[in-house]
């Protein structure tokens, strides 16, 4: 099996496992991660696989439930950002040059804004609910992909068969749906994956800075509390701060594997070279 | 694609490009100004509460009106905006709510540290990312290249703050080898002070590099792998030019152009991203100043740091723009080349 394909499959399997765990996991747990069941900072045992936090709450349960928060925001942001990027990039690719110029200047503008400070600002003032965080992250990450998609549309437009169809009087909508979309649609996969990766890391950073939603646990908030409650000063970091961080690494790596595999497959010059 | 065919055309092209770029920068700057102006006026609590401090809300109406007048908030918005711009032009950024220190002073203290931190990290990140990317690109689809790819993807997936926490634990607490807090230790002079600043830089820069090389690596790898069988490269091989020379002179130079573009796209991220690392290592830079200001609802400082961050990104962008013709001769015009 080719390496790219293998990487993509490993990534897909990991992602599926994580998603299933996030959806089904919380039902299989005997605790919701908020009950005080053990001694503070209790080390891992047969009952509590990852021990307990400073309040004696089960950390494994928090990790499983936190997957919902972290994967949830990744999915929301990726969907929103990909949609915005596809609409903006697609329209800019079809629009007359002056209109496209204006749109692309807006894209440049968003790219020049300091992302993280803006995000922190929004989270601090609009409240840290899932919807707000997802909306703000999506509002910041669509710009780069929009540029990519516009380039894809422009490239598709100049292809021979498309020009031929156009010369035969096909309408713009027909050209878009029948001929341009098969070329552009595969571009959306890496865009989606990249937005999901960015969302997970940004959201975790936000939570680490203490701006996460205290009512819905995520991997980021776990690391935040581990850091704030002194887990790094004792052995507790091993079962408190390490697992959620590794969970983030695993998820983002899985996404990256899928992204790299699709990007490699999409590039015709690479395929030819093989 | 044909390059500018006549000197006249290329000169007007250059002027247009420069004007267009400058216009773009001005537009971003104007939007940033507007955002920072509107920010305290649009947020919950209104400008009086946010500009005058929390307790203003509890004052009786007459006193409140006085405070509003003192801040010029009784004026119509355009007048307020004009005054804001006027103060800004005089570099009068107001005073911090937190201790009453002039904000301009706080920024002047913090900016050099961020420039040092981000500048060092960007150079190292680009150098290491590109070097690894070239290696992996040339060996794409083979064992070593794949191993390198997997390794970088893993590193890239780790959030900066988490890597920072672990770095503090191992290098600071367990090994006790490196300082984990701040940018300097009191009491060093001369060369010892330089060494002191450098040792304080090691961990934050290391974390930023680890967090940042992924993008440069991926773009380089992709670009190099795509160019491996480009016609001009095949032709160079066919002419019997040694492999190393083909790679160095024919393949890498055009293949590295997207990396430069990537650098420009990443700048906003890198400057903003330093915020997390500055917070983890209590590094006295702009990011931490911003974060503390947001946490403390210190609006004058917040406005000023936000604006400074935007300007920093714009200046770095402009630098990247200006250096591009050095890399790509096609964008040079005859007069300028």
Automatic annotation (TrEMBL), chain A:
GO terms for cellular component: plasma membrane. The chain crosses the membrane at residues 73-94, 106-126, 132-149, 183-209, 237-261. One of its GO terms (biological process) is transmembrane transport. The keyword Transmembrane helix applies. It comes from the Bacteria. It is a multi-pass membrane protein. PROSITE patterns: ABC_TM1. It is found in: Cell membrane. Keywords: Cell membrane, Membrane, Transmembrane, Transmembrane helix, Transport. Residues 71-261 form the ABC transmembrane type-1 domain. It holds the Pfam family BPD_transp_1. The keyword Translocase does not apply. PANTHER family: D,D-DIPEPTIDE TRANSPORT SYSTEM PERMEASE PROTEIN DDPC-RELATED, OLIGOPEPTIDE TRANSPORT SYSTEM PERMEASE PROTEIN APPC. Belongs to the binding-protein-dependent transport system permease family. This is ABC transporter permease.
TrEMBL record, chain B:
The chain crosses the membrane at residues 18-39, 110-135, 147-177, 197-219, 267-286, 306-327. Its main location: membrane. It is found in: Cell membrane. GO terms for cellular component: plasma membrane. It is a multi-pass membrane protein. Keywords: Cell membrane, Membrane, Transmembrane, Transmembrane helix, Transport. This is ABC transporter permease. It comes from Micromonospora endophytica. The lineage of its organism: Bacteria, Bacillati, Actinomycetota, Actinomycetes, Micromonosporales.
């Amino acid at each position: 099996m080719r390496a790219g394909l293998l990487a993509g499959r490993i990534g897909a399997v990991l992602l599926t496992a994580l998603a299933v765990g996030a959806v089904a996991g919380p039902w299989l747990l005997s605790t919701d991660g908020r009950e005080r069941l053990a001694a503070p900072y209790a080390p891992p045992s047969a009952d509590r696989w990852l021990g307990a936090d400073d309040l004696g709450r089960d950390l494994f349960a928090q990790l499983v439930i936190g997957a919902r928060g972290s994967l949830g925001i990744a999915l929301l942001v990726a969907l929103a950002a990909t949609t915005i990027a596809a609409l903006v990039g697609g329209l800019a690719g079809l629009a007359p040059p002056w209109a496209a110029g204006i749109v692309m200047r807006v894209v440049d503008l968003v790219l020049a804004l300091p992302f993280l400070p803006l995000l922190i600002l929004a989270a601090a003032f609009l409240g840290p609910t899932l919807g707000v965080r997802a909306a703000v992250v999506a509002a910041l990450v669509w710009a780069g992909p929009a540029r990519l998609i516009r380039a894809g549309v422009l490239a598709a437009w100049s292809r021979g068969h498309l020009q031929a169809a156009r010369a035969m009087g096909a309408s713009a909508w027909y050209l878009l749906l029948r001929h341009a979309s098969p070329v552009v649609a595969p571009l959306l996969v890496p865009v989606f994956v990249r937005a999901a990766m960015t969302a997970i890391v940004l959201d975790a950073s936000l939570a680490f800075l203490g701006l996460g939603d205290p009512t819905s646990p995520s991997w980021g908030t776990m690391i935040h509390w581990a850091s704030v409650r002194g887990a790094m000063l004792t052995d507790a970091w091993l079962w408190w701060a390490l697992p959620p961080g590794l969970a983030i690494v695993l998820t983002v790596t899985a996404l990256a594997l899928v992204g790299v595999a699709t990007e490699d497959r999409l590039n015709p010059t690479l395929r030819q070279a093989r | 694609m044909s390059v500018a065919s006549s000197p006249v055309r290329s000169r007007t092209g250059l002027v247009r490009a420069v004007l267009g770029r400058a216009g773009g920068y001005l537009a971003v700057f104007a939007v940033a100004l507007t955002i920072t102006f509107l920010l305290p006026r649009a947020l919950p609590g209104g400008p009086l509460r946010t500009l005058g401090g929390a307790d203003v809300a509890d004052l009786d109406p007459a006193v409140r009106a006085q405070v509003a007048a003192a801040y010029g908030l009784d004026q119509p918005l355009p007048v307020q905006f004009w005054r804001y711009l006027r103060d800004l032009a005089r570099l009068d950024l107001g005073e911090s709510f937190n201790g009453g220190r002039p904000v301009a002073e706080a920024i002047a203290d913090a900016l050099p540290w961020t420039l040092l931190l981000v500048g060092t990290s960007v150079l190292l990140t680009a150098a290491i990312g590109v070097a690894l990317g070239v290696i992996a690109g040339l060996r794409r689809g083979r064992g070593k290249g794949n191993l390198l790819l997997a390794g970088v993807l893993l590193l890239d997936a780790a959030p900066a703050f988490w890597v920072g926490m672990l770095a503090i634990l191992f290098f600071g607490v367990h090994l006790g080898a490196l300082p984990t807090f701040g940018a300097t230790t009191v009491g060093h002079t001369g060369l010892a002070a330089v060494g002191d600043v450098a040792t304080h830089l090691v961990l934050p820069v290391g974390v930023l590099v680890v967090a940042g090389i992924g993008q440069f690596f991926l773009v380089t790898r992709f670009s190099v792998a795509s160019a491996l069988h480009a016609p001009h490269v095949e032709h160079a091989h066919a002419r019997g030019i040694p492999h190393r020379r083909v790679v160095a002179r024919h393949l890498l130079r055009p293949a590295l152009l997207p990396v430069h573009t990537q650098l420009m796209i990443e700048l906003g991220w890198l400057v903003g991203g330093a915020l997390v690392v500055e917070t983890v290592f209590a590094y006295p830079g702009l990011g931490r100043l911003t974060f503390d200001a947001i946490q403390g609802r210190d609006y004058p400082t917040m406005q000023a740091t936000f604006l400074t961050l935007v300007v920093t990104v714009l200046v770095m962008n402009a630098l990247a723009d200006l250096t591009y013709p050095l890399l790509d001769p096609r964008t040079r015009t005859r007069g300028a080349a």
